[in-house]
Design brief:
By secondary structure, the protein is an alpha/beta fold. The protein folds into two domains: 218 residues, Spore Coat Polysaccharide Biosynthesis Protein SpsA, Chain A (Alpha-Beta Complex); 159 residues, 60s Ribosomal Protein L30, Chain: A. It is 29% helix and 27% strand. It is built from twelve helices and 19 strands. The strands form five sheets. Strands 1, 4, 5, 6, 7, 10, 11 and 12 form an eight-stranded mixed beta sheet that branches. Strands 16-13-19-17-18 form a five-stranded mixed beta sheet. α3 packs across α5 and α8 runs parallel beside α10. It is elongated and about 85 Å long.
């Protein structure tokens, strides 16, 4: 007997106007990666979800696909103007895959606590739908015109969360019969008189609605990480006739640097610092100079890989510091461009990147102009292991 096909709809078609940002909240960075990416990874983390179907606004399919690159995700489909329209279109996109169960999840919920999906699937054995929910703890007041009208009894009241789980055929049928706007998918089944089970939710399952929510989730995520520091050092000889590439920026100079790749001494040292912080070797392990495919390669791709290794470990780059040691060229006029380029490659705010330079007072090989050296340091936060 084949195992059940469990699909998840990742709803990202909303604009999140209450957040007040110039971009939808699900696209905003959270520890260096989009909120939506965290939500997708949370759905897939325990290996129970078979298919992931993103639903997004028209014209943003490519952007969503890029955010989910490397994950086992289906191509994004365009949603509708209201939530139930987006869910309906997502369900239609899943039809060829014949899922047995579908989870519906808000892309603005980047944390799905371990065990939540398993509890929902267990509840579906006896009910057509199930949702995670938290009992209301605060006293509830109904108000009007700035005054309290009445106190609302909180007994038996719950705060609904996502992902919400349903038997696929049941949700499809209920969606086809729904009239009017609904704010969650359990309401669709409720309107048809169908039972929806409650499983324990979690205070960690925060829906990002306002800026302070993003700050709260970031604090939660950082609380489970520990700092690790790495250092890197690299040297390249000068060579006439080559471009001078430093920290991803071409710098006007009468000579360049000798090397198998583009010899970007700044990026090479920074990569080693990041790999060192992760205890994952050095740049030569990942991009050996013995392989011709790295001949004259743009070192930018090496730094992108180092950033991907941080993400793969569930970590975040806190900061990095690069010190170039040379007499020529002058680094000062290009420092801001270098910091911006490194930040873009790493996918972090430029405030986390520092580039500076020093001379060796004309001493040694750097003082004689025979080469350029670089040392770098990087601090990353990764899950405790």
């Amino acid at each position: 007997m084949n195992p059940p096909v469990i699909a998840a709809l990742l709803l990202a078609a909303g604009r999140g106007t209450r957040f007040g940002a110039d971009r939808p909240k699900q696209y905003l960075p959270l520890l260096g990666r989009p909120v939506l990416r965290h939500a997708a990874e949370a759905l897939l983390a325990e290996g129970l979800v078979t298919l992931l179907q993103p639903v997004c606004p028209s014209g943003e399919e490519a952007e969503i696909a890029a955010m989910l690159a490397g994950l086992p995700s289906l191509p994004p489909v365009v949603g509708g103007s209201e939530r139930q329209h987006s869910v309906r279109l997502g369900l239609e996109a899943l039809a060829p895959h014949k899922p047995d169960v579908v989870l519906v999840h808000d892309s603005a919920r980047p944390l799905v606590p371990a065990g939540t999906i398993a509890a929902l699937l267990a509840a579906l054995e006896t009910a057509p739908g199930a949702i995670p929910a938290q009992p209301v703890a605060d006293t509830l007041k109904r108000g009007a015109a700035g005054s309290i009208v009445e106190t609302v009894p909180r007994a038996g009241l719950f705060r609904a969360q996502t992902p919400q789980a349903f038997r696929y055929a049941t949700l499809c049928a209920a969606q086809a019969a729904v009239v009017g706007e609904v704010t969650d998918d359990a309401s669709v089944l409720e309107a048809q008189g169908l039972a929806v089970a409650l499983v324990p939710g979690s205070e960690r399952n925060v829906k990002i609605t306002f800026p302070e929510d993003l700050e709260r989730v970031e604090a939660m995520m950082l609380s489970g990480l520990v700092p690790r520091i790495g250092t890197g050092f690299d040297v390249h000889r000068t060579e006439v006739g080559r471009k001078m590439i430093l920290c991803g920026v071409e710098v006007p100079c009468e000579f360049g640097l000798e090397g198998h790749s583009d010899a970007d001494v700044g990026i090479h040292a920074l990569c080693d610092a990041i790999y060192g912080a992760l205890a994952e070797g050095d740049i030569g392990r990942w991009f050996p100079p013995s392989q011709m495919k790295w001949k004259d390669a743009d070192s930018a791709q090496f730094l992108v890989h180092a950033a991907e290794r941080i993400a793969a470990r569930g970590g975040v780059l806190v900061n990095c510091d690069v010190t170039l040691m040379c007499e020529m060229p002058r680094i000062g006029p290009h420092r801001e461009a270098m910091e911006a380029r490194l930040a873009a490659l790493l996918g972090v705010p430029v405030s986390r990147v520092s580039v500076k330079a020093t001379t060796t007072e004309r001493l040694g090989f750097t003082g004689r102009g025979e080469g350029i050296a670089c040392q770098a340091a990087a601090t990353v936060m990764v899950p405790f292991a």
